[in-house]
Design goal:
This protein is mostly helical and 134 residues long. Helices cover 51% and strands 6% of the residues. Among the domains are: 60 residues, lambda repressor-like DNA-binding domains (434 Repressor (Amino-terminal Domain), Orthogonal Bundle); 31 residues. A hairpin with a 5-residue loop joins β1 and β2. Pfam families: HTH_31.
């Protein structure tokens, strides 16, 4: 089983951060981050609370289990953008996302519209014509 330090490193790499960048965001120096990752030191609760705010899965770091409710940084970005958007933009975004996840069936043909049988072959010319397959 991985140690807390090893899991902290896994999370840092998942977020695409160098030790120096991660340490700066967490409010520690790079050497402290190295000590955490190698197991020389164990991070305290204040450090863990800080890194949780920028996307680290603390449940995973501490217990070694992925937390099913944890959102990815991309999902946080989507939620932040949605919260900052105007009502019309929110409505358009929801409509686009819903149409992607719940495709709507094609509308029924208008009354009186010509219906093609499954064995019809469209021919293209000056005027589209339909001919039965031989």
């Amino acid at each position: 089983m991985n140690t807390i330090g090893e899991r902290l490193k896994i999370e840092r790499l998942r977020l695409g951060l160098s030790q120096e960048d991660f340490a700066a965001r967490a409010g520690v120096v790079r050497r402290t981050q190295t000590n955490y990752e190698t197991g020389e030191r164990v991070p305290d609760a204040a450090f863990l609370a800080t890194v949780a705010r920028f996307g680290v899965d603390i449940h995973f770091v501490v217990l070694g289990e992925r937390h099913p409710g944890q959102l990815s940084p991309e999902q946080h970005d989507v939620l932040d953008a949605y919260a900052a958007a105007s009502p019309p933009v929110r409505a358009a975004a929801l409509a686009a996302l819903r149409s992607e996840s719940h495709p709507q069936p094609a509308p029924a043909p208008a009354a009186g519209a010509m219906r093609l049988s499954p064995d019809a072959v469209p021919l293209h010319g000056p005027v589209e014509q339909v001919r039965k397959k031989s």
